[in-house]
Write a structure and sequence with these properties.
With about 375 residues, this protein is α+β, with helices and mostly antiparallel strands. It has nine helices and 23 strands.
Amino acid sequence: MTLEQATLMIAASESDSNLYYATRFIAPDPFIFIEIKGERLLVMSDLEMDRARSQASVDRVLSYSEIERRLRTQGVKDPGPSEVIHTVLQDERVARLLVPGNFPYAHAARLQELGYRLDTKKEPFFERRAVKTSEEVRHIEATQRAVEEAVAAAHDALRGATPREEVLWLEGEPLTSERIKKLINVKLMERDCVAQHTIVAGGEQACDPHQEGSGPLPANRSIIFDVFPRSGQSRYFADMSRTVVRGKPSPELKKLYQAVKDAQEEAITKIRDGADGAKIHQGICERFEAAGYLTGLVNGRMQGYFHGTGHGVGLDIHEPPRISRTGSPLQEGHIVTVEPGLYYPGLGAVRIEDMVLVTNDGCRNLTDFPKTFELE
């Protein structure tokens, strides 16, 4: 007698990309997804039943409250989601459940009590998520166009600013990171994109790669822009970084920028189906070291190149595959960033990032925005 395995998720698809990918249905509260013998089921509350039936890309939508009432008539006191799931599965001879790594512990424990064996797997939970369809590529490109429009407006604002006493001034007051981030985020909202943690960080702040930036922006020093919104329509992200200076950069800073730009563009030429993400990353590390840009702790602070070269982009801003020290093979259809950077307190920081689509014999750059260092 063959026992079956079912795939099970309990989450809110608004925040769980795997569940959204499986159902193409957005809901702010948790619901149940089951896939058994190729059939995909949702178990929904009365609140979401009609909407799920009309919008979700599944085979059947079941009523949570109907199953709950049936259990109560059978003498089950206070049936919960695990009992509801057991009721759906009991006629299917299911013994094992494949669940994502973030599956709720309380539900897992109760399902084990009911006799199920639970297995999990590393991301990507759905392997096909990593290989983008032509429709997904179009969604990501559309989000990227919105990014480029917003960053162009921000760069125009910097061009209108005046360097004065090592600070940028605009319309009679210091130009701040907060003002530029607001400009970017509003532009993105106008394109129905939502950005969180937009980075506009200058000078010493830019030497911390995830510092979002605050206060007056510096003149004559590098300012890193890193913008990675999600489309409100398609739910797909895009990601781009640029480094600029308004004023007169030092020769050392110009040399630093050129080193990163050259390394980034060389790395892009190595991306293709079957390429090893770890080797691409290691090549950048060796290139920087050969040029004298060393990485390590100095006065208790990391400097040099101390993050990965790239990551997948899709329904999550960071998803497999990786181009990094522990990178993985690239495959046709992957969309990955290429974003080396160098960070030296006292000198400044540079990061440049494009998104590319891996093809059979190379890659196609999805980013169509200039790499201009000195804004004039």
